[in-house]
């Protein structure tokens, strides 16, 4: 293969810049659609859970889809121990049950519950008497589990399950945000590879070709290819390059959509 000419290298450089700008536009739209959050917020959720529910410990485990494991990423409370960093099978113990079924549960006496895995508890350095587990779940699926151990003034109540569910929803937003950022790195890497391939083949590198590259990369996200955030970000980003009348029409349509009551309400 002959070396690319200066013109080809110039075309490739312009194409790379155009592709990166197109991806960056989508990332910025997605960032604005998502709540700004980072890992310290997961620690804040566990601290809140431990304090509000007067628990010995609270922890959050996030699902690693590659290893199919739950990874403990945050913990708080006087008996939290060294659980952060611990990995367990995604189906292990009561946490695994909550993750697999998507159902919250409170267990008053773990010693009598066949779902309780004592080896997992011992690995954390603290074996609870009672616990509450609620999944980190949204419309896209389950991403982890919030566990709360040993209420100091008794067993966990239905009200405690409601409180834990509210905290779990906040934690789910945080986890989704982290996955969005990891997907962003994949988008940028993929866009550069696609542009390099086009340049090697001396293919057309006009605007339509670049748009095709970015769309191809966007739809190849490993875990969240159907994530509505990415689909919406893609459409909104494309609007930037269109005419003002279409943008105003889209804004009017979105305003009308927002005025509609949520699904299931009259």
Protein described:
By secondary structure, this protein is an alpha+beta fold. The protein has two domains: 6-35 and 180-259, no CATH class; 40-174, Beta-Lactamase, CATH 3.30.450. It has eight helices and six strands; from the N terminus they run H-H-E-E-E-H-E-H-E-E-H-H-H-H. It has helices at 6-33, 40-52, 93-101, 118-124, 158-200, 207-218, 228-239, 244-259, and strands at 55-64, 69-76, 87-89, 105-107, 131-138, 141-151. It has a six-stranded antiparallel sheet, sandwiched between helices. The longest helix has 43 residues, at 158-200. Mean pLDDT is 75; it is low at 34-38 and 220-225.
Which helices and strands appear, and what pairs or packs with what?
Blueprint: H1 6-33, H2 40-52, E1 55-64, E2 69-76, E3 87-89, H3 93-101, E4 105-107, H4 118-124, E5 131-138, E6 141-151, H5 158-200, H6 207-218, H7 228-239, H8 244-259
Antiparallel strand pairs: 1-2, 1-6, 2-3, 4-5, 5-6
Helix pairs in contact: 1-5, 1-6, 1-7, 2-5, 5-6
- How would you characterize the largest beta sheet? 6 strands, antiparallel
CATH topology of the largest domain: Beta-Lactamase
H and E order: HHEEEHEHEEHHHH
Estimate the helix proportion, in percent: 40-55%
Number of strands: 6
Beta-strand portion reads 15-25%
Give the termini distance in whole angstroms.
Answer: 66 Å
Stretches with pLDDT under 50, minimum 5 residues: 34-38, 220-225
CATH fourth-tier homologous superfamily of the largest domain: GAF domain
| Count of the separate structural domains | 2
| Envelope shape | elongated
Calculate the mean pLDDT score and round it.
75
Biggest sheet strand order reads 3-2-1-6-5-4
Which CATH top level class of the largest domain fits?
Answer: Alpha Beta
């Amino acid at each position: 293969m002959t070396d690319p000419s200066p013109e080809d290298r110039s075309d490739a450089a312009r194409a790379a810049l155009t592709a990166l700008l197109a991806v960056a536009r989508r990332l910025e739209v997605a960032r604005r659609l998502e709540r700004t959050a980072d890992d310290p917020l997961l620690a804040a959720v566990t601290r809140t859970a431990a304090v509000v529910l007067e628990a010995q410990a609270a922890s959050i485990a996030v699902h690693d889809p590659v290893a199919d494991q739950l990874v403990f990423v945050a913990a708080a409370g006087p008996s939290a121990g060294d659980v952060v960093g611990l990995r367990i099978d995604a189906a292990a113990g009561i946490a695994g049950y909550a993750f697999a079924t998507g159902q919250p549960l409170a267990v008053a006496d773990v010693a009598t519950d066949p779902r309780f895995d004592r080896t997992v508890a011992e690995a954390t350095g603290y074996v609870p008497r009672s616990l509450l587990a609620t999944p980190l779940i949204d419309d896209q699926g389950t991403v982890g589990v919030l566990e709360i151990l040993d209420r100091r003034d008794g067993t966990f109540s239905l009200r405690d399950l409601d409180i834990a569910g509210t905290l779990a929803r906040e934690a789910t937003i945080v986890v989704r945000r982290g996955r969005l950022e990891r997907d962003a790195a994949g988008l940028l890497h993929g866009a550069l590879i696609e542009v390099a391939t086009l340049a090697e083949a001396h293919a057309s590198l006009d605007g339509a070709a670049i748009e095709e590259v970015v769309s191809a990369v966007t739809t190849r996200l490993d875990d969240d290819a159907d994530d509505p955030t990415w689909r919406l970000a893609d459409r909104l980003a494309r609007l930037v390059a269109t005419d003002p009348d279409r943008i105003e029409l889209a804004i009017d349509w979105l305003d009308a959509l927002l005025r509609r009551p949520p699904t299931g309400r009259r």
